[in-house]
Amino acid sequence: MAKISFREQVLRAREDAILSSVNRLLAEKGFDVMTVDEVAADVGIAKASLYKHFTSKEELAGVAMIRVLDRALEHLRALQADSARPAIEQLKAVARWTMQVQLAGEMPSLPSQNSSLRASLVGNRDYMNRLLEVSEILGGWITAAQRAGDLNPALPPEVMLYTLFARACDPVLGVLKASGQHSDERIIEMLLSTCFDGLAGRPAAPARAGEAANR
Amino acid sequence: MAKISFREQVLRAREDAILSSVNRLLAEKGFDVMTVDEVAADVGIAKASLYKHFTSKEELAGVAMIRVLDRALEHLRALQADSARPAIEQLKAVARWTMQVQLAGEMPSLPSQNSSLRASLVGNRDYMNRLLEVSEILGGWITAAQRAGDLNPALPPEVMLYTLFARACDPVLGVLKASGQHSDERIIEMLLSTCFDGLAGRPAAPARAGEAANR
DNA sequence: GTCTATAGCCAGATAGAC
DNA sequence: GTCTATCTGGCTATAGAC
Q1: Domain B7-199: what homologous superfamily?
Q2: What is the average per-residue pLDDT within B26-41?
Q3: What is the mean pLDDT of chain B?
C-alpha cells in the first residue's frame, strides 16, 4: 500500500509539473498558439506520455484553468477570513493579486470569444462551478462597496465583475513590464489606480487629498 | 487609358473587399485562428487568387491593420480641426469612436505578445509610422489634459496611451454586447465612465455632482 | 507509463491550365 | 488574374514496442 501511495505521489508530482508548464505557456502564448509538443518538451517527457494523463489539448488546458481558479478561490477565502476589511479593500486586494500573478507569467489570457478552448470550457462543469463561485464572492463585495459609496452605484455589478476579470489579463501590464521603465510594484499601483479611480484619477475619498492616485 | 483605369478600379474594389473581410475576421477570431481559406470563402474567390494580391497571411493582416490606422488618423484629424475643444474631450471622443468601431465588429484585437503577426508588424514601416503618428496626436492631448488638471498628473503619459489602446480592444465590450442587456450606447457610456473615472466613479468635476458617471 | 514512429488532418503557399 | 489541384510542413492524436 505504501508503494502504491508513493507511485501516486510521483504521478501527482508529474501531473503538477505538466500543469505548471501548461499554465505558463497559456499565459505566454495563449491556447491557440501553444502546441502540445512544446508542453511535452517543456516538461521533459514524450508527447505520447502526455496523452496518458490527459485525453486532449482542451482537457489539458481546462485542468490548468481549473487550477488557476482554485488558487484564486484559496486567495479569496483567505481574504474573506478578514471580515473586518471594507469590501472595496477586498476588491483592490484581489485586483492586486491577479496583477501579481500576471506579472509572474502565470495568468492565462481570457479565452477569446472564438477559441476552441472556450467551447470546451463552457461545457466543463468543474470549471464553470468554480468560475461561478469566484463571481459570487466578488459580486458580494461589489454590491457591498456600492452600498458603502466606494463604487459607482450607477454601474451594474456585472459590468464591474467583467471589468475585474478583464483587468486580471490586461495587456497593458505586459507592455509596461516589457518597457522596463517601472518596478513591478509601481506598475501594479498605477494600474490599480486607473482601474478604480480612472485616468482622471480623482482619489476615492474627496476630503483627504491625493492618496490612492500616487502612492 | 480609360480601360486600364477601369481595370484598376475593379482591382481596387476587389482588394478593398478582401481587406474588409480580413478586418472583420481579425476582429472576430484574431490572426491565429483566422484562416486564409476563410478569407477566400468570405470574399468569394479562390485562395490562389488571394496570393496574387498579397504574398502572405502576415502581409494580408498587415495591410488590413494599416487601413484601420488610416481610418483612425482620419478621425483624429477631424477632431483636431475642432481645436476649441479641451483635450480631455478629444480623448473621450476618440475612446468613444474606438468602442463604436469595436461594437461594429471592425476592431482587430491587439496582436498578442507572441503572435507571429506581431513580429511582422514591428518590421512593417508603413504600419509603425502610422502607429507612431497616432501615438503622437494622442500623447499631445494626454499631456495637455494633465496640465489642465483633467487627467491624473501622477501617471506617466505612456501608461495612459497604452491604456487607451487596450480599451479600444477591451473584451468587456464584447461580453456586454453578447449579454444583450444594454444598448450599444449605454455600453459605451459605461465603459467610458470606468475608463476615465474608474470603478469608483468619482465625477471629473468634484463641484458639479454626477455628470460623467451616469449620463 | 514511457518511449519512437507514424497516421490523419488541415494549414499556408504554389503550379499550371485557361 | 482566376481557377483547380497539389505540395509541404506542422499539428493533434494514436499504435505498438518495451
Answers
A1: Tetracycline Repressor, domain 2 (1.10.357.10)
A2: 96
A3: 92
What distance in Å separates the CA atoms of residue B92 and residue B98, rounded to the nearest whole number? 10
With 0-12 / 13-18 / 19 or more C-beta atoms within 10 angstroms meaning exposed / middle / buried, residue A77 is: exposed
Asked if residues A33 and B115 have their Cβ atoms less than 8 Å apart, the reply is yes
**CB nearest to A199's CB, from B113, B158, B196:** B196
CB contact under 8 A, B198 and A203: no
Sites in chain A below the pLDDT cut of 70: 1-4, 203-215
* DSSP for residue B112: P
pLDDT in tens, A117-176: 999 999 999 999 999 999 999 999 999 999 999 999 999 999 999 999 999 999 999 999
Q: How far apart are CA B159 and CA A199, in angstroms?
A: 9
Which residue of chain A comes nearest to B156, CA vs CA?
A: A190
Give me the amino acid identity at A11: L
Under an 8 A CB cutoff, do B203 and A202 touch? yes
All three cell numbers of B125, joined, read 514601416
For residue B68, which phi and psi values (nearest 5 degrees)?
-60, -45
B165: phi > 0 → left, psi -120 to 50 → alpha, else beta; which? alpha
Neighbours of B83 (CB within 10 A): 7
Question: Looking at residue B1, what is its pLDDT?
Answer: 54
Cβ <8 Å between B30 and A112: yes
Report CA torsion sign: B175, B179, B185, B187. negative
